[in-house]
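Bench log. Compound arrived from synthesis this morning; before running ITC I wanted a structural hypothesis for how MRU sits in the protein. Inputs:
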Amino acid sequence: MIDYARYDRVRAVAFDADRLRLLDQRRLPFEQTFLECRTADAVAQAIADLVVRGAPAIGIAAAWAVVLAGLSLGTASVAQARLALEPVLERLHAARPTAVNLAWALARMRGALAHAGEDWQARVRAEAEAIEREDLAANRRMGELGAARIAPGSGVLTHCNTGSLATAGFGTALGVIRAGVAQGRIARVFATETRPWMQGARLTVWEMREDGIDATLIADSAAAHLMGTGQVQWVIVGADRITARGDVANKIGTLQLAIAARHFGVKFMVVAPWSTVDLATASGADIPIEERDPAELLGHAGRRTVAEGVRAFNPVFDVTPAALIDAIVTERGVLLAPFDIALREASAAA
Ligand code: MRU
């Protein structure tokens, strides 16, 4: 049994009566400040600006944004609420394109509203609570399932931030790592910096330190060297979207980790709740890949580090083909190749 009070101390999103408090991830690790959003549009902006980030967390924040928008409608009828909230749902949906959890959470909120009567305010609030609660439960379950695959004494490498900061709590890939450390299976944890936004350097190793987990930061470009020298037995990552054939969109750089892992015989695990599975998208080629401001590459901490006039290209996700993945861990179980069939079966079984 995992001591969650010890191994899960941070919360990224907290709804409080008439506002959503978001731990401002742009300012971590040195400042723990909260951005208070009182409108859905403020939440949409916070998602676009990466105040809150990570696929499940942006879905949860968007769900609470719909609750906030509902509150502003006061005693409106359910018919009026459906009409007024539809453009809000669309603006939230447009905040970031790749993580399907955002669209998934908004679809759930739309569904709750569609089935509600004049108690619609209570129904949308209950739905947001359920989305958040179910995500935490999924992460804990995935932690147990994923950790069970890891042989004692293993070294693991993770990319980006998939922890409590990116979810309702505990994390996806980081949940498996937390569980594996708690069970004494994992001997070494490595985290990539995750350029250019530095989710690994600024967030993941900080989260690990809060739990007292000994994690070592590496440059993104050191990953293949670590694998080639036998220090890593599993690469464990999260996902922003998993397609019907098992291709996985995740933070830029995941693909090159998967290629290096296969080259060196290192196992590759993707950990994501079912809300990340998008059976309506056939393959990785169909996933919209977010491109962010090239300025993220041209400077550091507000200071330009690259010569004026240089162009930069900044796609922030890539797609790892199913063939490079050894296991996809969801709360419905550990899926193995062929992933198209495993995903279809897990969908039908639910
Ligand atoms: O741009 P980000 O920081 O939102 O990207 C996050 C990732 O790519 C994570 O790996 C993914 O969302 C899974 S988080 C549990």
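What the model suggests: The chain has two domains: 4-137, 139-349. The mean pLDDT is 97.
ITC booked for Thursday regardless.
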